[in-house]
Write a structure and sequence with these properties.
The complex is a heterodimer of chains A (95) and B (100). Chain A is of the alpha+beta class and 95 residues long. Chain A contains 3 helices and 5 strands; from the N terminus they run ααβββββα. In chain A, the strands form 2 sheets. A 3-stranded antiparallel sheet of chain A has the order 1-2-5. Chain A has a two-stranded antiparallel sheet with strand order 3-4. In chain A, helix 1 (3-13) packs across helix 2 (19-38). The radius of gyration of chain A is 19 Å and the shape is elongated. The two termini of chain A are 24 Å apart. The model of chain A has no long low-confidence stretch (mean pLDDT 94). Chain B is an alpha+beta fold and 100 residues long. Chain B folds into 2 domains: 7-42; 44-66 and 74-99, IHF-like DNA-binding proteins (HU Protein, Chain A, Irregular). Chain B is built from 3 helices and 6 strands; from the N terminus they run βααβββββα. In chain B, the strands form 2 sheets. In chain B, strands 2-3-6 form a 3-stranded antiparallel sheet. In chain B, strand 2 (47-49) and strand 3 form a beta hairpin. In chain B, helix 1 crosses helix 2 (23-42). Classes of the chains: A alpha+beta (95), B alpha+beta (100). Chains A and B meet through helix 1, helix 2, strand 1, strand 2 and strand 5 of A and strand 1, helix 1, helix 2, strand 2 and strand 6 of B. Strand 1 (42-45) of chain A pairs parallel with strand 1 of chain B. Chain B: Belongs to the bacterial histone-like protein family. Chain B: One of its GO terms (molecular function) is structural constituent of chromatin. Chain B: Keywords: DNA recombination, DNA-binding, Transcription, Transcription regulation, Translation regulation. Chain B: This protein is one of the two subunits of integration host factor, a specific DNA-binding protein that functions in genetic recombination as well as in transcriptional and translational control. Chain B: Heterodimer of an alpha and a beta chain.
Chain lengths: 95, 100
Amino acid sequence: MIRSELIQKIAEENPHLFQRDVEKIVNTIFDEIVEAMARGDRVELRGFGAFSVKRRDARVGRNPRTGTSVEVDEKHVPFFKTGKLLRNRLNGEED
Amino acid sequence: MSEKTLTRMDLSEAVFREVGLSRNESAQLVESVLGHISDALVRGETVKISSFGTFSVREKSSRMGRNPKTGEEVPISPRRVLSFRPSHLMKDRVAAGNKG
């Protein structure tokens, strides 16, 4: 499923909404999650999962082609942990 | 870093603010977006949201595990796990926003 198919499904379920509003709704949800993580915040969606930011310490890396070492700065990366309910549903255990 | 935790309520508040539907309807829409993503994943589909990221289901085969407390060996049955791969845009924005 891709973003446009998701929008389509929501639009079909909500015939009273304009397509452009459905697009805005779906985009707002994803944008809000990205913006929260850009601020260093967590987004916890019970049953679905939690988005958080993890810190990766600075390290000395190596260029795999040349073998020369390069300093890699500390950085922050997005992380997602699956919620309990969704994890169970994936394995056929409803509730 | 502020380290706040956002919930469904904050997402529906954003939908309420941006689109101008009622708070109740905004909350229901957030729920149905999460529901459709979950349902697709349960069907085994990959969910690819451009400029956000990709959720995919991976099959893990059975293996022997060990109870770390007792050292006892226990079989771990095959299972399906969800993995999320953030888009470049998300990675860049998270890296830039949390710098220094």
